TrEMBL record:
Protein name: Uncharacterized protein DUF1471
NCBIfam families: PRK14864.1 (NF011433)
Domain YdgH/BhsA/McbA-like: 47-102
Species lineage: Bacteria, Pseudomonadati, Pseudomonadota, Gammaproteobacteria, Enterobacterales
Keywords: Signal
One Pfam family this sequence matches: YdgH_BhsA-like
Record carries keyword Endoplasmic reticulum: no
Protein species of origin: Sodalis ligni
Amino acid sequence: MKSLSVMVTALGLLALAGCSVLEGKPVPPPPPTHQAQEIQRDQAGSLQVLDRFSVERRGSPMDVEHVVRVKANAAHATYYQIVALSELITSGKWRADVILYR
């Protein structure tokens, strides 16, 4: 019985230790340029949210990403983050959820 409780405790500690591996460390965003730049979640910590929007486009994921870049530049955003990119039930139609930052 004692070995079972030791094993359960050890597995619990391993699971908790594994959680810290998945947590990203904050990373500064790249220097601003004249075009909006895509950033990752761990780079957005100190930035101010400018807007949020969704884009749906028939074609490929790259077509949706192009529309996102155009909209981000039109909004004078410094950075943008594509939070989700997924194909809709209608084959060939893609949706991106985006956050714009200053």
